[in-house]
Amino acid sequence: MLKTLLKTDPREVDVPATIDRSTFLSTLPATSTDRSAALTIVGVSSLLFAAAVPFAGTPLQPVPAFVASYQSALAVSDIVTAVLLLSQFAVLRTRALLWLATGYLFTAAAALVHALTFPGLFAPAGLFGAGRQTTVWLYMIWHAGFPLCVMAYAWLKEKDGGPRIRGAASSAIHASVLGVIAAMAVFGWIVTAQHDLLPVLLRDGHYTPTMIGVVSFVWSLSFAALVSLWFRRPHTVIDVWLMVVMCAWLFDIALSAIVNVARFDLGFYAGRLYGLAAATFVLAVLLIENVRLQAHTVGLVGKLRQQSASERDYYGKRLALYGAVVESSNDAIITKSLDGIITGWNKAAEHLFGYPAAEAVGKPIDIIVPPDLKGEVRSILNRVASNESIAQHETIRIRKDGRPLDVVLNISPLRTDEGEIIGASKIAHDITEEKQAREKLRRETEERQRIFETSQDLILVTDGYGNFVQVSPSVQNILGYSPEDMVGHIATEFIHPDDLDKARNEMRAARRGAVKRSFEARYYHYDGHEVTLNWMGTWSEPVKRHFFIGRDLTDKQAAEAQFRQVQKMDSIGQLTGGVAHDFNNVLTVITGTIGILSDAVADRPELAAITKLIDDAAERGAQLTKHLLAFARKQPLQPREIDVNALALEAAKLLHPTLGEQITIMPQLTEDAWPTLVDPGQLSTAILNLALNARDAMPDGGTLVLETRNVFLDDGYASMNPDVTAGNYVMIAVSDTGSGIPAELIDRVFDPFFTTKEVGKGTGLGLSMVFGFVKQSGGHIKIYSEEGHGTSVKIYLPRSTGVHETEFEALQNAPVTGGDEKILIVEDDTLVRQYVVTQVKSLGYTALEAANGAEALNIIDSDETIDLLFTDIIMPGNMNGRQLADEAARRRPDLKTLFTSGYTENAIVHHGRLDSGVLLLAKPYRKSELAKMLRIALAS
Fold first, then answer.
1. Phi, psi dihedral angles at 508 (to 5 degrees)
2. Which domains does the chain have, with CATH numbers?
3. How many Cα atoms are found within 13 Å in the side-chain-facing hemisphere of 431?
4. CA end-to-end span of the chain, whole Å?
């Protein structure tokens, strides 16, 4: 079978360059159809054989012509079969196939010799001096030789046809033919001229014991050939039909040499018919296969013709496509001969130079060349003629209207099919605007360099690792270094150690995409003193560089400090001055009258001594007022930027002896807490007041948690709390495990003189003093309490100005991501519930709401599409949030849960309220925190 592989391109038809062995029957695997047809023929033959056996000895009319016809047909069939097999051998060159073809040649030769020596056919006793035993022995030799060749074929064949001959195929074929002729000549001579030497096989029309042995041996050879074919797998098509041949061969021997009793009986004729049928099976299959191959060949020729036509069409289209590409190109494409005559001119050339193709083609290229560049054109053509290509050559050309053009040329030799250079192909690209842009960029670069060199601010350029690449000359005036002192050094060598983390965080934030970062960092001057610089910085990803502009804040800070000092002095001076004025008025009356009194009692020593004491006391009072005014000028109280973590740790140390051993103090401080601008003394007093309140709420002992956290209060939270401005805050939380505050008293705890303590155990000013301090500091305070569980007071102090976005803040300010799931919100506070529902819906979710656990369970039972339960932990009624979550999980095992609480997260965890792994969103929270926790909970 000839295989033709058609590629995706319809123009291509693969004709295998090597021989496809599956083309030939000797190597083509047998199909189920082949096996079915063969089994059918064997089955029919077996039935006919079984029917003929009982009548094999029935004598029939002798017909010598039948023998002649049978032998002739058999010889012709075997010769044709041998020729077809030898033609396959000439291609495949396998030894197995040569043996099989030799077997068919041997059978044809034996049939011819047998016919010539058959009695009564060409001569009464047969030709060549044949005797009575000649044809019997020839029959045995004939029927033994073919099975031997088949067995040789079976044992030599492999999956790919078996071993191959090394010499020429024609030599092997000649050797096979000559070998068969020689073998038959020898056998013919033995059974004719020497027939008297051979044992007698037939005597008086009956088989001799020798005949029985010879026939049995011959039949056994045929059976052995059949068995060999069966076990030599895999079977090819020719293997299957050879097995059919050997079955017919066995039936032939059985009928004509075993069960019959004489010539011309039924067995004689039936056996010869089986033999003739055996000779035609393989021949018929080979002829059918040849017809099929011829049909494939015709089809292949047709496809090759089709391919040829397709290729002609393809190359025609390709040529047209190339023409279209040239015409549609945005660059001018020009061809010219070696003497400079234009031979090709596309539409882009028309547009670029202003000449139509009809005007340009046939004219010299000089029509677009400035007069002073004509020598350049001649030089280019000479280089092209020398097989040189010219790339990216910038030059000037002239339009038809006389306007000069800046162009870049790419020129290549133009060749004939034989490779001879006959001209040049030129692509011209207009770079007039590009050149103008380059000039503009050059001017801008020069201007920026001048700004860099003359700037009074410090300009620094660093690589991604913080190494200085460029430093402006202004560094000499600001830091005392020359630019050469700093270039090549890392920035950390010059930055104050306390500001290193801040500077690194700013550089990281810039690389994450933040631009125009503004922050303060101190650098060391050449003489060792600190210089505070306000930096504007950005990162350029294309060049992998940081760019910083630093402004010296030394003068500004000194002026601000002086201004604050003046303001403080003025305020305190006004206060103390007013007091001193009134006090001095009193002292004036005292000192004035004491003088009169002293004169009046001058003669009374005991009264004079008393007036002297009064006069000295008045003088001391006057000195006191002077000292007070002096103190007010020199020691003004003012807030400063502090580290809340350090202050909280210091407060924790002071609280240990104050609170007693029965109360455990647990600091939970966030890393990299932002600094805040606040009076540290007042903040310490506020923490002390809150801790004392917590102690009073835990008379039997408990846990006090001091927590710090960086937070962002968003617009949604600010809308719920009118006194809050959205922004960054440092949260300081004091949480206890005490008795808590009743819900009806929460709104009054900050009122002055309000207290829940017994008479004599509190003034009611502690929380109000904290409240006033926080508000005066621009902050926010919130209290959360659950009666019987504890209280958490959260102070939010604004983040100090001049400190900018850290990695933590960048993470918290990540874009808000929502979803389309359905969320059940359970919150007993109406305002908070409305706020949460609004935020959840704004994120794209479907929001359901409930005020308590009972309402929530009713909704869960009625709606199976709820994806998440978002519930407060402690709620009024018989069911808190944890109990609600457990019951919801029992009813809906796949329902996910997110808790929220007014306590800080650490306080809740250390109170033991939640198991490990339970998700909690602490109040208050911003929208981004809500969005993040919702996604985490839904994905858990």
1. -65, -45
2. 34-296 (1.20.1070), 329-436 (3.30.450.20), 466-613 (3.30.450.20), 636-798 (3.30.565.10), 813-939 (3.40.50.2300)
3. 15
4. 62
Q: How many other CB atoms are found less than 10 A from the CB of residue 543?
A: 10
Most distant pair of Cα atoms in the chain: their distance? 205
CA distance 249 to 223: 9
- The Cα–Cα gap between 339 and 362 comes to 11
Q: Residue 157 class from Cβ within 10 Å (0-12 exposed, 13-18 middle, 19+ buried)?
A: buried
- Identify the helix (H) or strand (E) that includes residue 286: helix 266-328
Q: Which residue has the tokens 């037939």?
A: 202
CB 70 within 8 A of CB 114: no
User: In the structure encoding, which two tokens stand for residue 199, read together?
Assistant: 């044992």
User: How many other β-carbons are positioned within 10 Å of the β-carbon of residue 692?
Assistant: 15
CA distance 889 to 897: 9
Let me know how many helices (H) and strands (E) the chain has, helices first.
Answer: 27, 26
How far is C-alpha 798 from the chain's CA centre? 43
User: Which of 680-684, 716-720, 912-916 has the lowest average pLDDT?
Assistant: 912-916
Q: Give dist(CA 350, CA 357) in Å, integer.
A: 6
d(CA 324, CA 329): 8
pLDDT tens sequence across 705-740: 999 999 888 887 887 777 788 889 999 999 998 888
Decide: residue 86, CB within 10 A, 0-12 exposed, 13-18 middle, 19+ buried: buried
Give the pLDDT confidence score for residue 908 in this predicted structure. Answer: 40
143, 253 contact by CB (below 8 A): yes
CB atoms within 10 A of CB 440: 10
Q: Dump strand ranges (E) for 672-749.
A: 676-678, 702-713, 727-736
Tokens of 381: 């053509």
What pLDDT, in 10s, does the model give residues 462-484?
Answer: 887 888 888 888 888 888 888 88
Which regions of 195-251 does DSSP assign to beta strands (E)? Answer: 202-203, 206-207
Look at residue 912 and tell me whether its pLDDT is greater than 70. no
How many residues are there in the chain? 940
Give the DSSP letter string of 557-611.
Answer: HHHHHHHHHHHHHHHHHHHHHHHHHHHHHHHHHHHHHHHHHHHHTTT-HHHHHHH
Q: pTM of the full predicted structure?
A: 0.38
Rounded to whole angstroms, how far apart are CA atoms 794 and 656?
21
β partners of residue 549: 459, 536
The C-alpha atoms of residue 831 and residue 563 are separated, in whole angstroms, by 45
- Kindly state the helix (H) or strand (E) to which residue 809 belongs, with its residue range: helix 807-812
Q: Which are the contacts of 224, defined by CB distance < 8 A and separation ≥ 6? A: 147, 151
Question: Distance between CA atoms of 805 and 501, rounded to whole angstroms?
Answer: 12
Amino acid identity at 252: D
152, two tokens: 């040789």
Say which DSSP state 332 is in.
E
